[in-house]
Design a protein that fits this description.
Elements: E1 6-12, E2 16-23, E3 30-33, H1 37-50, E4 53-60, H2 67-85, E5 94-101, E6 104-111, E7 117-121, E8 131-132, E9 136-137, H3 139-152, E10 155-162, H4 166-185
Parallel strand pairs: 3-4, 7-10
Antiparallel strand pairs: 1-2, 2-4, 5-6, 6-10, 8-9
Length: about 200
């Protein structure tokens, strides 16, 4: 590998301020402070299980709602992933994972396609309204996945196959996504150039 797959991004609006650095070829080290503790937990898990080194510092109008800070952080993460992937030469492109967390089970499939698309199913009724950790609503899981898919240029299918505890369900989803992304971004020595018949992703 001759080029470092790294990126550094910032984003400042009237609602939030984000600073983010990542290395796609890291070991899963992270330093996360989004001012939303459960989201910190999810991003730490994403970094660890995708083997992406990640540093994030975010602040925003969390006295109103965590929505802006969480979604804007996911936007910047997606942008950084897209930048770090470069022309995508030599990547595996596809990844899939099935991850349990106690009673919860989630599956994720990722295609680094350049075509943003999210299919997200299986969360139990009412999950989107549940407060996890007293501040992070279940609806934010899909919001972050949408932002990642759109801004990183990923096709993502994420589905919950089972679960009762909202914390476990959300964490299984993030970890499944991380494991699938880890496979998809991996450099495959058998891949010659860009893994697409079109010659571009």
């Amino acid at each position: 590998m001759t080029n470092a797959r790294t990126a550094r991004r910032t984003r400042t609006t009237s609602e939030s301020s984000i600073e983010l650095e990542l290395d796609l070829d890291g070991t899963g080290q992270s330093s996360i402070d989004t001012s939303v503790p459960f989201f910190d937990h999810m991003l730490t898990a994403f970094a660890k299980h995708s083997l992406t080194d990640l540093r994030v510092t975010s602040s925003g109008d969390t006295h109103i709602d965590v929505h802006h800070t969480v979604e804007d952080t996911a936007i910047v993460l997606g942008q950084a992933i897209r930048e770090a992937l470069g022309d995508k030469a030599g990547i595996s492109r596809y990844g899939d994972a099935l991850v349990p967390l106690d009673e919860a089970l989630a599956q994720a499939v990722v295609d680094i396609s350049g075509r943003p698309f999210l299919v997200h199913t299986g969360e139990p009724a009412g999950f989107e309204m549940h407060l996890i950790g007293g501040h992070f609503t279940g609806s934010m899981v899909r919001h972050t996945f949408e932002a990642l898919a759109f801004h990183a240029g990923l096709t993502m299918h994420v589905r919950v196959l089972g679960g009762r505890d909202p914390h476990h369900i959300a964490e299984a989803e993030y970890k499944a996504l991380a494991r699938a992304f880890r496979q998809a971004k991996a450099l495959d020595p058998l891949v010659d150039g860009i893994p697409s018949t079109k010659g571009a992703l």
